[in-house]
């Protein structure tokens, strides 16, 4: 199953920008190998914002929860990271459905 995951990072007042960037660096060091392994199908940084968009391939909802909860940025910032998650599927699948519904 594919999931679109939108990460919105808020810098806590208790940490410096440098500390935030160190946490984000650890996150990137964990995320980029997941891209190469195929678990993360796509990963994008939103320009001008502290936001990242990912397409993650997980077998179950529980697997996605486990993936998200073990991310360095979630473990270290927790409440300061807002997640928006949507199950998605290929448009080609939707096309097959609308052909069926249209007939």
TrEMBL record:
Annotated ranges, domain Muconolactone isomerase: 1-90
GO molecular function: isomerase activity
Coiled-coil stretches: none
InterPro entries: Dimeric_a/b-barrel, MLI_dom
Keyword annotations: Isomerase
Superkingdom to which the source organism belongs: Archaea
Identification of the protein by name: Muconolactone delta-isomerase
């Amino acid at each position: 199953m594919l999931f679109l995951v939108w990460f919105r990072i808020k810098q806590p007042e208790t940490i410096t920008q440098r500390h935030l960037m160190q946490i984000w660096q650890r996150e990137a060091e964990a995320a980029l190998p997941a891209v190469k392994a195929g678990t993360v199908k796509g990963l994008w940084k939103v320009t001008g914002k502290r936001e990242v968009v990912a397409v993650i391939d997980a077998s179950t909802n529980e697997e996605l929860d486990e993936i998200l909860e073990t991310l360095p940025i979630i473990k270290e910032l927790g409440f300061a990271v807002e997640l928006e998650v949507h199950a998605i599927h290929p448009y080609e699948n939707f096309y097959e459905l609308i052909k069926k519904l249209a007939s």
